[in-house]
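Question: what's this shape?

___
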Amino acid sequence: FGYSITGTFELPSELDAYTFTGAVGDHIIIQMNEGDRIIEPTLTLYAPDGSQVAVDTDNTTAVLDSILLEQAGTYTLLATDQTGDETGEYNLSLQRINNPGNATTLNFGESITGAIELPSELEAYTFAASAGEKIGIALSSLTPGFDQTFQLFAPTGELITSGTGDDFLNGITLTQAGTHTLLVTDQGGNE
C-alpha cells in the first residue's frame, strides 16, 4: 500500500494482473490513469475467493474509491484498456485508507510541502485527533495549472469531506477519535 507504478500495455487486449494482501475491514482506493493519453483505463478487483468486488471504466482515470475489503487474503486487480484496441502507458496507485502505507504524519498547526510525482499518485497524510475536535484544512498548488483534490477519512475509513483546487475548509467537526487520513492527488489524475 502507498505505492504508484507505471505500466505498459504492449499489445491490444492486454490484461495486466496485480495482487496485494488485504485484511477484513481494510478500506482501499485504487486509481489508474491513461499515462500517455491513449488508453481508456478499466480496473476490476477480485476477492480471494474469486468473486468480483468492484469495477470502473473511464476515458481518463478509473477509480475504485473507498472499497471495504470483506475477506482476508490475496486480492487480484486486473488493469486493461476499455475497448481492448489500444496500447500505451498507464499509471496505477493503491492506498489503504485506514492505516495507509508510506504516510506522512501531520501535527496540528504544521504546514508542509508535498509532491505528486506520478499522475494518479495518492499522497497520504495522517493525524491523531479526538472526537469533537474542530479542524481546518488548506491546500494550495505551488505548480501553475496543477489542480489537486483531497479526501479526509475517519479512522474507520468513512469519508468525512473532500475538496478541490486551492481550497480551505474550516470548522470540520471530527466524530471519531483516532488516526485520520488525508489523501491528496491530482484532480483529473493525469498531471
